[in-house]
């Protein structure tokens, strides 16, 4: 399936359109097909860490310490 991934932190230029494996749901899960989504300016600012320096470490812990969580 096609997906947009963020392999590293940075501006919108780090987002990549690529093929990924289709997830297989477990017995207590469901697979939902998403037709459309959006990336807002706020999403790109958080991924690029254009935020107040006191919030930087908390946001880094939430989104992934060394690289973004998928």
Q: Would you mind describing this structure in some detail?
A:
With 70 residues, this protein is α+β, with helices and mostly antiparallel strands. The chain has 2 helices and 2 strands; from the N terminus they run ββαα. The chain has helices spanning 41-47, 53-63, and strands spanning 2-5, 16-19. It has a two-stranded antiparallel ribbon with strand order 1-2. The longest helix has 11 residues, at 53-63. It is globular. The two termini are 15 Å apart. The mean pLDDT is 81.
Unreliable segments (pLDDT under 50, ≥5 consecutive)? none
Distance, first to last CA: 15 Å
Task: Encode the helix/strand succession as letters.
Answer: EEHH
Mean pLDDT: 81
> What structural class do helix, strand and pairing data support?
alpha+beta
Gyration radius over CA: 14 Å
Order of neighbouring strands in the sheet with most strands: 1-2
Number of helices: 2
**Assembly level:** single chain
Helix percent band = 25-40%
Our estimate of the beta-strand percent is 5-15%
The global form is globular
Major pleated sheet: 2 strands, antiparallel
Number of strands: 2
């Amino acid at each position: 399936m096609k997906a947009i991934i963020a392999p590293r932190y940075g501006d919108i230029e780090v987002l990549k359109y690529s093929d990924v494996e289709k997830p297989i749901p477990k017995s207590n899960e469901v697979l939902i097909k998403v037709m459309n989504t959006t990336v807002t300016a706020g999403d790109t600012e958080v991924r690029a860490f254009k935020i107040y320096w006191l919030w930087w470490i908390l946001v880094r812990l939430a989104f992934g310490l060394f690289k973004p969580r998928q």
